[in-house]
Design goal:
With 335 residues, the protein is α+β, with helices and mostly antiparallel strands. It folds into four domains: 69 residues, Arc Repressor Mutant, subunit A; 49 residues, no CATH class; 79 residues, SH3 type barrels; 90 residues, Alpha-Beta Plaits (2-Layer Sandwich), CATH 3.30.70. It is 37% helix and 25% strand. The strands form three sheets. The chain has a five-stranded antiparallel sheet with strand order 7-6-5-4-8, with helices on one face. A four-stranded antiparallel sheet has the order 10-11-9-12. Helix 4 packs across helix 5. The protein is extended and about 85 Å long.
Amino acid sequence: MATNQQSLLRQWHMLRMVPRAPAKISARELCERLCAADFRVTERTVQRDLRELSGVFPVGVDEREKPFGWSWLRDASSFDLPGLTVPEALTLTLVEQHLRHHLPPVTVDALRPHFRTAARTLSTVEDDSPSRAWLDKVRSVPPQQPLLPPRIDEECQRVVYLALLQDRQLRLHYRKRDAAEPTIYGCVHPLAVVQRGGLVYLVCMFANYDDVRTIALHRVQQAEALYESARGKAGFDIDAYIASGQFGVIAGEPVNLRAVFTRAAGEHLFETPLSTDQVLASDADGKLRLAATVPNTRALVWWLLGFGDGVVIEEPASLRDELAGIAQRMAAAYG
């Protein structure tokens, strides 16, 4: 049985669906739209609601031909009904969950009332409604072992994001790993923000230097946006920077990787290639031979180690030797 709150929300959305005359909408069409928006209602209930609402709002019915059509009266004062539909509330809830680190603070501040409204809207919908149940049916799973994200100082994040948005310099107190005291960077030029797993990084330049650096945002203890404009870097492209392997901890120039996978270990590479030039072919014994040009990163080493004896590196020789050495040390440690 619907609660008074659910009935009010349904009528609220119904009024938003009614057009201004001479356009009109039938009770049946309203019923279909409400059902599509996760309001379980019959056409009889819609007709009853419309009759009750017409006694309070300038809403009328055209009974000259069937199906009867309902409209806001042509000469009715302009009337705006704020609020969110259930699909809109669902979308905003997912945005809040997954994109909050990708939005500038001013945008988050502007959306915060909408996030609260979305939460209230979903709380009034029945627990087993499709839209509300959707939140329990969709998850984003990291491909690696999930780790708890570090805590980020919200005020520091706000200052950094605002400086990035406005192209202003930053003064940062940055705590390096295992350092007793923070390092003070008096002039930081922000270029971009990148989220990698649970970590958020600031891509930037320091002082008068032109090399691009990355610092972990959770290690920023104090942040101050300066009034001076930040320097840009000619030709800098964040997508190219990421593709170069910087966030996999770059270890050198790209390498031509050649490896032999067991079918169980490498079969997923048919659907999710390692690179655009990847060549993956089956051997006569059923193993998969891989050739691909990839960034030479520590992430590549960690990824290959994750397959255990499911992969054997053939080239480059330096990578083969490194993994062989790790395997020997592991065998000694476990022996």
